[in-house]
């Protein structure tokens, strides 16, 4: 599904990714762990098309050159990034935003757009599944949301937009145990043999809830080791500093 | 140009049969206008909008006496709300419709009898010199309007490349309430419009005044509003400044007795080379009054926006609560925005604050929205609408609120 070969990225002439390789197949859950400054967020930004990076290497998504696509085209193709810090958009109603978003994606995919009733039905169903208080959706997008509410909102968007590849950028940061469990359950409920996930995190904690198929250690802009869930446990014990 | 206006004025005086006292008022005002001319940027109030230059660049000649006859035009405008209306064609009342109201409680008259005055504002001098259809609307004590009143200004093609002065006074007696919507057809060419309104809001009365300049047009417009509030009265004022080529909305609002309050909000939403200004002066002349102002501007292309706002607090006006904020979103490198927020305070027990910000659209927010499948343009539009929504949400008349959303292009 996603194939990254020798990916290098610079920002302001500083090299952040220094030849990263990663292959994700349909239905797989991959976790990338790494210390601060190892290039985790850069990776998720580049995959979702954020501007400002000088990028080399190849990234293909379902056989297509991902790096040539605009941010919104990547969303249309089925890539979703759950933000580490979801942005507050004052004056924009969350429901209005969600409807605009899902219909933009449906339109690009040549599917029929949802009318107001179909949309509300979908929202109701998804909120119920994720135990998400839908009242919050009539508020301004992320404005005045607690950290947990923002992250839950990201997961709700993920569930509504139904992506093929979901990238979760430190979704666990700033979450208390209860929110962490709700978010993880949300992710787990979306797992199937077609959907893939790339989970970026500092800690093993989230991985106790979402058991990944593969764990990779990112250090200095490269994946220095890959393994299964046991690797995360080992990492937690040893720490990034001494991990080689 | 001034010479031509002079000849126009003399012809105009000869043609009309004014009484000698009216003639004198007009002559004095006209001479004052000729002495000072159109205001230029050396005058502090016109620092950011040099009208003299704007007029000279865009007009070869302006004849303010051009159109005085009643036209038989079937004006049409449709608004999706129940309303009363007064239709003006080139400043002359052509239709009055108060079908939702008790007509005995409202008096509308139009004549040419102006009171003696000599303002320092040369555009008001010009207005007094040329206005011969002076409209007065009176709402009698205790009467609450059931539906909004639309004041519709229809301008005919005869006015192209010329000017028009209009004057409407609105007097709300005590314990009354009225919602007014000011609109124009304005899809005409190159008119200079000098609109003046004088409003008095009686004790315990409420006026909601909505001024909507919507249609793209190439008019040059100056609107001056002089508003007085009596004890315990309330004014809600909203401006949508969007369509004209040039517009200056000049509001002078006085809180003349205790417990009066003013909420004045505005949107400047411009593209192309449009140049709009909102200038406000709120005079707190007595104790315990409140004023709140929020102006938001969105500037595209080569447009220019200006906000000048002053809160004046008299030494008598203790316990004043005044607030003023201007925020501007600059969407191109070629736009210009000027803000001059001012406080002038002579009392010591007051709460007053003001602020002004301007900036570009947040690219991180754009990225967030695009990552959800929205195009760049869609994302920009959503962010801009969100930015303006805060002002629109302050409109308390729900019908007008949805109307404004429609004009801005906000869908729910």
Structure, explained:
The complex is a heterodimer of chains A (244) and B (412). By secondary structure, chain A is α/β, with parallel strands linked by helices. Chain A has a single domain (2-238), classed as Rossmann fold, CATH 3.40.50. Chain A contains eight helices and ten strands. In chain A, helix 2 packs across helix 3. By secondary structure, chain B is α/β, with parallel strands linked by helices. Chain B has two domains: 2-364, no CATH class; 365-412, no CATH class. Chain B contains seven helices and 19 strands. In chain B, strands 2-1-5-7-9-11-13-15-17-19 form a ten-stranded mixed β-sheet, covered by helices on one side. A nine-stranded mixed β-sheet of chain B has the order 3-4-6-8-10-12-14-16-18, with helices on one face. The radius of gyration of chain B is 21 Å and the shape is globular. The A-B interface holds A 48-51, 70-72, 74-76, 80-81, 83, 86-87, 89-93, 96-97, 100-102, 104-105, 108, 140-141, 157, 161 and B 362-365, 367-376, 378, 382-383, 385-390, 393, 411-412.
Kindly summarize this structure in a few lines.
The complex is a heterodimer of chains A (244) and B (412). Chain A has 244 residues and is an alpha/beta fold.
Write the layout of secondary structure elements.
The complex is a heterodimer of chains A (244) and B (412).
Chain A: E1 2-11, E2 14-24, E3 29-33, H1 40-48, E4 54-61, E5 64-65, H2 71-77, E6 79-82, H3 94-108, H4 116-129, H5 147-161, E7 165-169, H6 177-190, E8 196-201, H7 205-209, E9 214-219, E10 222-227, H8 229-238
Parallel strand pairs in A: 3-8, 3-9, 6-7, 7-8
Antiparallel strand pairs in A: 1-2, 1-4, 4-5, 9-10
Chain B: H1 2-15, H2 20-36, H3 51-58, E1 84-89, E2 92-97, E3 106-111, H4 122-130, E4 134-139, E5 149-154, E6 163-172, E7 177-184, E8 189-201, E9 206-213, E10 218-229, E11 234-241, E12 246-255, E13 261-270, E14 275-284, E15 290-299, E16 304-313, E17 321-330, E18 336-345, E19 351-359, H5 363-370, H6 376-392, H7 398-408
Parallel strand pairs in B: 1-5, 4-6, 5-7, 6-8, 7-9, 8-10, 9-11, 10-12, 11-13, 12-14, 13-15, 14-16, 15-17, 16-18, 17-19
Antiparallel strand pairs in B: 1-2, 3-4
Helix pairs in contact in B: 2-4, 5-6
């Amino acid at each position: 599904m996603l194939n990254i070969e020798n990916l290098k990225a610079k920002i302001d002439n500083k090299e952040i990714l220094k030849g990263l390789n990663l292959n994700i197949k349909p239905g797989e859950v991959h976790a990338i762990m790494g210390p601060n400054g190892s290039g985790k967020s850069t990776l998720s930004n580049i995959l979702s098309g954020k501007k400002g990076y000088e990028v080399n290497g190849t990234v293909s998504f379902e056989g297509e050159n991902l790096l040539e696509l605009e941010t919104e085209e990547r969303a249309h193709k089925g890539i979703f990034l759950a933000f580490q810090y979801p942005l507050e958009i004052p004056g924009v109603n969350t429901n209005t935003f969600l409807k605009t978003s899902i219909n933009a994606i449906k339109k690009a995919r040549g599917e029929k757009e949802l009318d107001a009733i179909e949309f509300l039905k979908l929202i109701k169903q998804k909120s119920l599944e994720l135990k998400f208080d839908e009242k919050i959706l009539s508020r301004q997008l992320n404005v005045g949301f607690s950290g947990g509410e923002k992250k839950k909102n990201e997961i709700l968007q993920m569930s509504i937009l139904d992506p093929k590849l979901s990238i979760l950028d430190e979704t666990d940061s700033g979450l208390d145990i209860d929110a962490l469990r709700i978010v993880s359950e949300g992710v787990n409920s979306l797992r199937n043999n077609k959907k893939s996930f790339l989970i970026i995190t500092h800690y093993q904690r989230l991985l106790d809830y979402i058991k990944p198929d593969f764990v990779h250690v990112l250090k200095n802009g490269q994946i220095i080791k890959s393994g299964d869930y046991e690797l995360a446990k080992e990492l937690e014990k040893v720490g990034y500093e001494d991990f080689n | 140009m001034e010479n031509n206006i002079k000849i126009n004025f003399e012809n105009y005086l000869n043609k009309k049969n004014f009484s000698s006292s009216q003639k004198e008022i007009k002559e004095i005002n006209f001479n004052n206008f000729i002495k000072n001319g159109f205001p230029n940027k050396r005058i502090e109030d016109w620092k950011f909008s040099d009208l003299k230059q704007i007029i000279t660049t865009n007009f070869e000649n302006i004849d303010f006496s051009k159109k005085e006859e009643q036209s038989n035009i079937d004006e049409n405008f449709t608004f999706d709300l129940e309303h009363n209306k007064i239709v003006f064609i080139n400043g002359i009342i052509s239709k009055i419709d108060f079908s939702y109201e008790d007509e005995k409680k409202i008096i509308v008259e139009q004549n040419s009898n102006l009171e003696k005055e000599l303002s320092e504002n040369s555009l008001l001098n010009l207005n007094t010199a040329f206005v011969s259809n002076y409209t007065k609307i009176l709402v009698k004590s205790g009467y609450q309007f059931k539906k909004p009143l639309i004041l519709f200004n229809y301008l005919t093609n005869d006015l192209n490349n010329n000017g028009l002065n209009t004057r409407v006074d609105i007097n709300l007696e005590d314990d009354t309430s009225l919602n007014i919507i000011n609109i124009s057809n304005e899809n005409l060419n190159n008119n200079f419009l000098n609109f003046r309104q004088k409003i008095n809001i009686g004790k315990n009365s409420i006026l909601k005044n909505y001024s909507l300049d919507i249609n793209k047009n190439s008019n040059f417009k100056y609107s001056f509003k002089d508003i007085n509030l009596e004890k315990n009265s309330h004014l809600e004022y909203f401006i949508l400044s969007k369509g004209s080529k040039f517009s200056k909305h000049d509001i002078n609002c006085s809180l003349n007795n205790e417990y009066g309050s003013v909420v004045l909000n505005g949107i400047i939403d411009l593209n192309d080379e449009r140049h709009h200004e909102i200038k406000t002066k709120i005079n707190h002349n007595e104790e315990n009054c409140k004023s709140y102002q929020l102006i938001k501007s969105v500037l595209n292309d080569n447009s220019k926006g200006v906000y000048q706002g002053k809160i004046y607090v008299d030494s008598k006006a203790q316990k004043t609560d005044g607030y003023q904020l201007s925020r501007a979103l600059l969407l191109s490198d070629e736009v210009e925005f000027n803000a001059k927020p001012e406080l002038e305070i002579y009392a010591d027990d007051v709460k007053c604050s003001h602020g002004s910000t301007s900036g570009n659209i947040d690219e991180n927010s754009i990225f967030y929205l695009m990552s959800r499948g929205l195009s760049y343009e869609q994302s920009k539009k959503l962010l801009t609408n969100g930015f303006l929504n805060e002002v629109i949400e302050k409109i308390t008349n729900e019908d007008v609120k949805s109307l404004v959303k429609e004009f801005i292009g906000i869908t729910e």
